[in-house]
Design goal:
Layout (H helix, E strand, L loop, with lengths): L10 E6 L4 H11 L4 E8 L10 E5 L5 H9 L6 E4 L21 H22 L9 E6 L15 H24 L3 E7 L2 E2 L17 E2 L1 H14 L8 E3 L4 E2 L2
Parallel strand pairs: 1-2, 1-4, 2-3, 4-5, 5-6, 6-9, 7-8
Antiparallel strand pairs: 9-10
Length: 246
């Protein structure tokens, strides 16, 4: 049974960050859906798959020339999923526990990957989204980007970059009402997923805290996107359909 019965036409999907832990799960879930006609997968490395629905493009999403060339190869998109993001990485990139740990380099890299790159991707793929059909654009965010939900502090650059992404999605939703009245855009909170992004922090999870497999999280978020309504456009929505307050 398809998740996308609410769409009048078959789904042509794009997954950006397609070879990441969650990105690959999105690709696999979409390929298995009977109402999905094609899956465009953008990533830095190739996915080992010869599925007939899959169309792969290897690129650096930080390069606008590459983004434009990749977008030019696509005729139509009714589902867009930006599954890129960073929490920790090389050169000492790690969530700060204190203001004393803030550096301009760490903050700039968080904003570049978590906010700027999703905005650039959406900028280049929007012309492929039909103006008068149902379409959903989603970008992976995080509950910790909610200002009202922040009770613990810390993780300053990561929180701020996800807040910025949430604001960009809100701005996009307002513009889309004028140009694409049947399109919905969402920031998406996947919960804690068993991937490399969360691995260093899994030991400190509270008792009873859910840890999802990538497949579980992908199915949950795609279900949220498939069932989203126009009044939810611009919101940060969690894996269970909850709207997280800004």
């Amino acid at each position: 049974m398809s998740l996308f019965a609410s769409f009048a036409e078959p789904i042509d999907a794009l997954v950006v960050g397609a070879n990441g832990g969650l990105g690959r799960a999105f690709v696999d879930t979409l390929l298995a859906d009977e109402n999905v006609r094609s899956v465009h997968a953008w990533s830095r490395t190739r996915i080992e798959s010869d599925h007939p629905k899959l169309q792969q493009t290897i690129l650096d999403v930080g390069d606008e020339e590459q983004l434009q060339k990749a977008a030019d190869q696509i005729e139509r998109l009714s589902l867009v999923l930006v599954a890129t993001g960073v929490l920790h990485g090389p050169q000492g990139l790690f969530p700060e526990k204190s203001w004393r740990a803030i550096t301009p380099e760490n903050m700039a890299e968080n904003f570049r990957i978590n906010a700027i790159l999703p905005a650039l991707v959406i900028k280049h793929v929007l012309p492929r989204v039909p103006r008068k059909e149902r379409a959903v654009i989603g970008a992976l965010s995080a509950r910790v980007g909610s200002i009202s939900d922040n009770r613990l502090g810390g993780w300053h650059s990561y929180r701020a970059s996800k807040s910025a992404l949430n604001q960009l999605i809100r701005c996009l939703s307002i513009e889309l009402r004028r140009t694409h009245p049947d399109a919905i855009c969402l920031a998406l909170h996947p919960g804690t997923v068993d991937t490399g992004l969360s691995e260093p922090f899994q030991k400190s999870l509270a008792a009873g805290h859910k840890l999802f497999t990538p497949g579980q999280s992908a199915a949950q978020l795609l279900n949220v996107m498939a069932g989203a309504t126009s009044d939810q456009s611009g919101c940060l929505m969690a894996w269970d359909g909850e709207i997280v307050e800004p």
